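Page header: ASSEMBLY MODEL / two components / 647 residues total.
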Amino acid sequence: MIEKALKGGPRYWAWISFLLLVIVIGFMFYLRQLSTGLGITGMSRDISWGVYIAQFTYLVGVAAGAVMLVMPKYLHGYKRYGEIIIFGEFLAIAAVTMCLLFIVADLGQPMRLMNVLLHPTPNSILFWDMIVLNGYLLINLIVGYNTILAMKKNVPPPGWIKPFIYLSIPWAFSIHTVTAFLYCGLPGRHAWLTAIMAPRFLASAFASGPAFLVIMLMIIKRVTRWSPDPEAIQNVARTICYAMIANLFFLCLEFFTAFYSNIPGHMHPLKYLFWGLWGYNSLVPWMRVSIIAGVIGVFIMLIPPLRRKEGFLILGCAAIVLGTWIDKGVGLVIGGFIPNPFEKITEYQPTLPEISITLAIWATGFLILTVLYKMVIYLKERDLAVE
Amino acid sequence: MGINRRSFLKIVGLSALGVSSGAWEVLQPGEVDAAHGHAAAEHGTKAAVRWAMVVDMRRCKEEKGCTKCIDACRLVHNIPVIDNPKREVKWIWKEGYEHAFPDTHNEYMSEEFKEAQFILMCNHCDNPPCVRVCPTKATFKRPDGIVAMDYHRCIGCRFCMAACPYGSRNLNWVDPRPYIREVNPEFPTRMKGVVEKCNFCVERLAQGLLPACVEACHCGALLFGNLHDPESKVRRVLRSNVSMRRKPELGTHPCVFYLV
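Prediction written out in full:
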């Protein structure tokens, strides 16, 4: 099947070459990071996690988002998702792969990665995150591979993958819950020490993952002869809308608890992110854009006549992807480190090498996604020709 | 011959037990981390030694601008001198009161107090969050209470830096060796990409010596001793003075005490 990804027009090859170029540039910077150390990034003694861990956190959400298609299809028998579910599973594979790459990119001593397996430590949440992420990747590889094999032969997928599909549902919840636990169990980091971290992560995941998928499907609709069922897409849009409303609601809850209780430690990170604190305010424009984008996204998704117009649908999904990406991929991690344990502020600015490595990992994810989607599209177009 | 039903059930049962005991450990972090400290104490099987430090700020204030303890630590432990605060490595350092004890200062305190520079270091907590989160056991708690590190096992994930509420941990963002002024061959230098922090001079204690900072302090502001010995110097001063610890509300049980 993989050979189908080697056939394509000039536009396809231009896209692949672009991705490869980004990967090569990032890889060269990664070699420099390996020899110099993490000192070539913008991270510091105070902001000890940066853009790598933030992307990791966001992409765990994108991966978990696929469950919003799996659940209606397999638990409620919603047949319309049958056509597009494979795109969700393949998105999960690409997203989890990026997560794992971001973890490796973030390590100070990546050659010692296997120490996590050699010295398994169940009291570390990172140990459980390793298990759930690799498990989720494996489940999606098993299900995705057998689904596409069945598609190729025009037969229904084998019955034995059903348990894996059902397992993937709680497992999707687990990956983002465990990822939230990385943060919300740490004493003294007020922005993270909140019991609704996991629900907030899940709400944001169930908005951003499907929104990302809708954008991908709309691109596929434009560049191939196959197009997804519009009613299925509308239903995904409804899910995105509910999830995003829940996500914004949870954010309001964080504000209420911090500001009504009036506890300085709880107010500081939110003040820093949305208004600036003690003269430091470099993330304020980002966070405000995040809120505005989220509200615009919800507005479009909430109004059926708007949502049914393809241009608005894409705009709404893009706004939600942007809003959730800033929220988790920028604000969450940095906000947790500000102010530092001495109530001082060090700000964070990613460096060129750091950004290049980040883009390269995203490009790797898009390359995997492109190759996987190309195979699906080949089969969909083949079936169209038969009809 | 495949496995029969009985042995299959045995395996399933045993693995379920394994998973649940793992989960139990997560929910009982205090027990896991402090198996030798707290738990032992509660069961009356106290470890013989529990090292602790007392910083007597009344004596420390006497000599303004003194850095003898910090210099001694730097020499003994090959600590790099990096001017950039984003990249610096420090095991023992000074911080003003409002930074050392945030949320506890008020504007009416005496000038003397406001100006005092508190000596900070790793608190060697009884219930250390850094040990709880480390995915490789590269940082661990010894039976004598010292939170130690294996620099060769650390993968540089920096989970411990996020977990430490005292900002006591440092990553070597770059190769530290060019920044070491005078190498002490008795103690290992570190490489880039690993975390390090104060180790209560565990290597000196093994030789029956006091920690380097304690030995270097001529004001008698740093006292070091065994908390589990009621007659030790630290126990005696803690008995007869009001002491405080950093962020006690977090339940980490720091073993560095301050007299003010």
